[in-house]
Amino acid sequence: MAARLGIKPGDLILESGWRDGADEALRKEIFSAAGNEPVGDGAQEVVDLVLLWWREDDGDLVDALVDSMTFLDAHGVIWLFTPKMGRAGHVEPSDIQESAQTAGLAQTSTFAVGADWSATKLNAPKGGRR
């Protein structure tokens, strides 16, 4: 799955929103492929990508996306992991799309990344961030 997410050796990854219930096997695969430990929320480094674990009751998704972009490389992406439909904490696709647009991001793909989680790829439009 790490290859499908575009994870490469040496990628520096900021992880946010991880807590109990996140897919541990997926996390291990991602960070093993990158060869780095995750960068935490308090870090000040520029990162290649952001893994944002998000549930419906986690707060304002727009704010979380804008915060995620703060340390993201100009060509980096945000992978938004949300519970699949029918799982506790599921986020409606329309909410994701609206939040992404408000944050100045484009939604490019969504697919399953395990039994309980979906991944949505978000990146800045080709013309640059707003």
Automatic annotation (TrEMBL):
InterPro entries: DUF3052. Pfam families: DUF3052. It comes from the Bacteria. This is DUF3052 domain-containing protein.
